[in-house]
């Protein structure tokens, strides 16, 4: 006869309020002791790349590029199939998210630095190895004392081939200190004019026309300081944030949710707004009241979603024949519901390295108040007009070794 597991009384393990953790010397030292630790994968959520999961992820970030979402288009492309949006590993897990150390201290995803090695395609299965690589103490205007945690994540396919490697970092803040500092207390909801709404709608609806697609964007044709076409997302709504969760396959509910809350009580609480239903402390992405408890003026976007928007800015511009090698995005300000994000970029360097034709980009995002909310950089490998050089489908440069013409 099999013994039944001992029941755990939820009311004794799930708190009635969000835990107010403290940043102490001891807590920081305990976090530093975890450097080098291999973490359990978050989730994983969507592990298989299929036509449906690839398309669904694009829906969650608003990406219209047919290479990432259209089976027939992919079949006719140079890859002979759809390929995944470079940020599809976010459907497996969000690198750098605060899941370790400093219990009860709120965490914000604030940056990723990606390096890409090959495409994911339908039929691939994603795995990930994550390890803690750093803990840094700082002081800022948002909450005073804060901690930055760094995690390195390496994503592989089913053949153990490295797909992407990313350094992710999260800031941890005491909720009470953030409320007391009230850095964003003077921000008022933005009222758009009809002309502003029309300009945003026109930019969104015409985005498909600015996707480069099959025509190669040749390295020789690029010029330093050349701007790349902007991508706009907004005004941010609950449809956008919920859609990203759906695109990433995230949806813990009922018994699955309660089981996680029992095992990790400092990350959950019984919310009186939900009749005492259990919610995750990150529900500030969807509830104003919880966002304000952590010093944010209202519900706000997901950092990985905004990073994916910055990637779409580049993939729309570079075309099917190019390969994005690096993308770094630093989130500098909150993007709250009602804000509009204009993703922009320009070429800052054009060069050759190890036989590769490369351009470096400066990228950034601005909101409707002309405040810079995100800063970043990217490197793109472009095809060349030099007939002796080609770009392999994994993004590497190849010497075609063409025969000499006599």
Summarize the structure.
The chain is α+β, with helices and mostly antiparallel strands and 406 residues long. It has helices at residues 25-32, 51-61, 71-76, 175-181, 194-205, 238-247, 254-263, 288-293, 303-318, and strands at residues 38-39, 106-116, 127-140, 144-156, 162-173, 227-233, 268-271, 277-280, 323-331, 341-353, 356-366, 372-381, 389-391, 397-399.
Name the CATH architecture: Roll
Q: Which CATH class is shown?
A: Alpha Beta
CATH superfamily: Hotdog Thioesterase
Instruction: Return Rg in Å.
Output: 23 Å
Model regions low in confidence, pLDDT < 50 over at least 5 residues: 1-11, 400-406
> Strand-residue fraction?
25-35%
Q: Kindly, what is the distance between the CA atoms of the first and last residues, rounded to a whole number of angstroms?
A: 85 Å
Main-sheet strand order equals: 1-3-4-5-2-9-12-11-10-6
Content-based structural category: alpha+beta
Average pLDDT taken over every residue:
92
Annotated CATH topology: Thiol Ester Dehydrase, Chain A
- Helix residue percentage: 10-25%
């Amino acid at each position: 006869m099999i013994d039944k597991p001992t029941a755990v009384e939820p009311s004794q393990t799930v708190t009635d309020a969000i835990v107010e953790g403290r940043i102490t010397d001891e807590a920081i030292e305990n976090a530093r002791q975890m450097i080098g630790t291999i973490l359990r994968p978050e989730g994983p959520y969507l592990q298989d790349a299929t036509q449906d999961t690839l398309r669904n992820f694009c829906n969650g970030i608003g990406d219209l590029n047919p290479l990432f979402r259209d089976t027939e288009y992919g079949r006719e492309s140079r890859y002979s199939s759809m390929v995944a949006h470079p940020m599809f590993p976010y459907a497996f897990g969000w690198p750098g998210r605060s899941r370790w150390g400093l219990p009860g201290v709120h965490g914000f995803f604030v940056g990723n630095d990606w390096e890409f090695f090959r495409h994911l395609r339908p039929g691939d299965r994603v795995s990930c190895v994550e390890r803690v690589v750093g803990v840094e103490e700082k002081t800022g205007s948002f909450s005073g004392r804060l901690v930055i945690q760094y995690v390195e994540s390496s994503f592989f396919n089913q053949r153990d081939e490295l797909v992407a490697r990313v350094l992710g970092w999260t800031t941890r803040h005491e909720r009470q200190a953030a409320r007391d500092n009230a850095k964003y207390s003077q921000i008022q909801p933005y009222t758009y004019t009809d002309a502003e709404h029309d300009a945003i709608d026109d930019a969104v609806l015409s985005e498909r026309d600015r996707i480069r697609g099959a025509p190669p964007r040749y390295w020789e044709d690029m010029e330093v300081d050349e701007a790349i076409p902007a991508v706009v997302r907004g005004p941010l709504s609950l449809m956008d944030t919920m859609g990203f969760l759906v695109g990433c396959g995230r949806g813990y509910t009922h018994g699955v949710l309660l089981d996680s809350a029992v095992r990790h009580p400092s990350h959950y609480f019984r919310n009186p707004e939900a009749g005492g239903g259990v919610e995750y402390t990150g529900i500030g992405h969807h509830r104003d009241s919880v966002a304000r408890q952590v010093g944010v003026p209202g519900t706000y976007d997901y950092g990985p979603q905004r990073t994916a928007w910055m990637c779409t800015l580049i993939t729309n511009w570079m075309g099917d024949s190019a390969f994005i090698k690096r993308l770094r995005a630093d989130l500098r300000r909150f993007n709250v519901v009602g804000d509009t994000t204009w993703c922009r970029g320009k070429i800052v360097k054009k060069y050759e390295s190890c036989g590769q034709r490369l351009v470096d980009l400066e990228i950034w995002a601005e909101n409707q108040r002309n405040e810079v909310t995100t800063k970043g950089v990217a490197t793109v490998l472009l095809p060349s007009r030099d007939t002796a050089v080609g770009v392999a489908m994994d993004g590497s440069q190849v010497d075609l070794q063409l025969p000499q013409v006599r």
